[in-house]
Amino acid sequence: FIAATEAELSTCSRCARIDALASGGARVRVTTELATTVTVTAGGLTLTHRAPRAMRVRWDVVVP
Predict the structure, then answer these.
(1) Looking at residue 27, what is its pLDDT?
(2) Were 9 and a residue from 3, 19, 46, 47 both cysteine, which residue would form a disulfide, CB within 3.0 to 4.6 Å?
(3) 29 pLDDT above the threshold of 90
(4) For residues 51 and 36, what is the distance between their CA atoms, to the nearest angstrom?
């Protein structure tokens, strides 16, 4: 699911925004649902978090 706005990205579960960078790369931001363990695959990225208690995680990754 692609978040339409910055506000939606901060509150959604399993959504993302992908923004092109002037350098030619992309900024990929992913927000997870509230959970102790989550793995998200977005294109060539695989992101995993494990925590002792449920939490929402947001990744902010720049890819070439």
Answers:
(1) 93
(2) 3
(3) yes
(4) 5
DSSP string, the chain: -B-SSHHHHHH-SSEEEEEE-TTS-EEEEEE--SEEEEEEEETTEEEEEEEEEEE--EEEEEE-
Q: What is the pLDDT of residue 42?
A: 80
Beta bridge partners of 50: 37
- pTM for the full predicted model: 0.81
User: What is the Cα–Cα distance from 12 to 5, expressed in whole angstroms?
Assistant: 11
* Cα–Cα distance, 38 to 57 (Å, whole number): 9
